[in-house]
Amino acid sequence: MKEKLDYIVIGQGIAGTTIAWWLNFNKKQFYILNDEKKNTSSAAALGIYNPITGRNSVKTWNSEILFKELEKFYSKVEKKIKKKILYKKNIYRPYKNIKEANLWNEKISNSKYENYIKSEVNNKKINGLYDELGGIITSKSGYIDVNKYILESKKYFISLGRYKKYKLNNKKILIKNNKIKIKNWKTNNIIMCIGIDETKNKLFSYLPFKHVTGSSMIIKTKLKIKNIINKGISIIPLKNDLKNVGSTYGNETNNNGLQELIDKLSKLLKIKYTIIKEKFGVRPATIDRRPFVGKHPIFDNLYILNGLGSKGISLAPFCSKELFNSIEEKNKINFEINVKRYNSKNINK
């Protein structure tokens, strides 16, 4: 490779794709090197973005900033690839029990949630769902078609001559004068976005990654819904009676989540369905549930964007912008996501 690049991005999951778009929007010379590995967490992701999450249905971390960035970013990508990937959808949350209904009634009168609660559903039940107690409809949510986002982005970057299938290993990584070089490539900066495989790489293996498995599936059913349904699992309406269903969360590395998904679906769906496709991946999560973003503590030209966990679609635009501005403008990265929070703890271990 003779061309001197501004950046090389290693990996093209949600993180690698998103930082590549930031480089593209800012007219940087870059290349994506991707091993095209199957069963990645991005391939199994539902792609839901949702400002109210968790067992207690609370506002997600940094939601005002994250969601301001999110829809603007993906809309801009849509214009580039000339494909629709962003689907704005409300979320209908059937109550699990009276206690949950009472908690949501408290949120209705809480100004902190007034911009996110659309309406309460008391009597209008959905045919085919177990929602006898009614539920709540929340807004400012939706989903990204993750597979299309990654595939169409890949096609776009290939058309620009900015993508190559490439399997990086430790033998191809060269160290010289506190800088990292990749054999046969010339670049000013390298950004690592290889998901859970980072634990096998010598560069950032000191970071405390957490393996979190996730299973999802595409089903076909006559259930008629316009909103995303969320009750333990999520059901996303697609075309032609297809629905995307998921996800599970496991701390192992094996695909044991499908039966759990089927069991949860049986408690939510009254009508028959057919499984069309099963999906599985291992998410690169972190022990404090915050991403790893920033510069390596030793190597001056080496950066990481990883550990997005189950909220990759929501976090990726904000984290990519933080990383890009830290490199180009020398801005400080939000400390809660800055990889520096672990550098002093683990680099010498």
Describe this structure in words.
The chain has 349 residues and is an alpha+beta fold. The protein has a domain at 4-45 and 147-209 and 287-346: FAD/NAD(P)-binding domain (3-Layer(bba) Sandwich), CATH 3.50.50. It has helices at 14-25, 41-44, 63-81, 98-108, 146-159, 258-266, 312-328, 340-346; strands at residues 4-10, 30-34, 48-49, 52-53, 58-59, 86-88, 91-94, 117-121, 135-138, 142-144, 163-165, 173-176, 179-182, 186-192, 209-221, 228-231, 233-237, 242-246, 273-286, 292-295, 302-306. An eight-stranded mixed β-sheet has the order 8-9-7-16-17-18-15-19, sandwiched between helices. A six-stranded mixed β-sheet has the order 11-2-1-14-21-20. Strands 3-10-6 form a three-stranded antiparallel β-sheet, covered by helices on one side. A hairpin with a 4-residue loop joins β4 (52-53) and β5 (58-59). α1 packs across α7. The longest helix has 19 residues, at 63-81. The chain is elongated and about 70 Å long. The mean pLDDT is 89.
